[in-house]
Amino acid sequence: MPASVFIGLGSNLNQPIQQVLQAIEAINVLPTSHIDATSSLYETPPLGPQNQPHYINAVAKLSTDLKPLELLDQLQSIEQQHNRTRDTGRWGARTLDLDILLYDNQESNDPTLTLPHPELQNRSFVLHPLLEIAPQLNIPSLGSIKQLVKKLGEPVPTIIKSKKLDKPSSVC
Question: What pTM value is reported for the model?
């Protein structure tokens, strides 16, 4: 049975809207995988250094037979295809950032991949898109998505493309 996975997408360089939309298409054609839903696109200020453009963020729900580390390798390959570099420092500007937020109900402290994502509960740009596409979601060791959004207490980020995308081909 395929795993249910939530992936966070973000970009703030080189046409970030297109970077995110193209990444959704690339994720949808991964082996033994398909996207079940995607959130709206949100515009958010950067974490850390503020002397960079705002980000475009989204969350995609994926069904996949890939194991967590196999999926991570595939996502990092997509990042590389989008000219992602890892030399911009923590929270630096990037063409594309793909994070596995949740992989089924798995919990892991593996140094390569921590599940759920260790900062998920602190990020409005992740919580609000998750709430949009999975309002009944319960996150292992953290609680319901609704409780996490309420606890964070931040406003909904600006939605720039307001449509749930049931099929990635309808993204444009």
Answer: 0.90
What domains lie within the chain, and their CATH numbers? 3-164+166-170 (3.30.70.560)
Burial 101-132 (b: 16+ CB within 10 A, else e): bbbeeeeeeeeebebbbeebbebbbbbbbbbb
Which residue is it, tokens 């054609």? 29
The catalytically annotated residue of 65, 86, 94, 104 is 94
| Marked catalytic residue, from 97, 104, 110, 166 | 97
* Residue whose C-alpha is closest to residue 136's, from 4, 1, 33, 3: 4
Clarify whether 84 is annotated catalytic: yes
Contact 8, 99 (CB under 8 A): yes
Residue 123 is a catalytic residue: no
Kind of pairing, strands 41-44 and 55-64?
A: antiparallel
pLDDT in tens, 104-155: 999 999 999 999 999 999 999 999 999 999 999 999 999 999 999 999 999 9
From 36, 73, 90, 99, active-site residue? 99
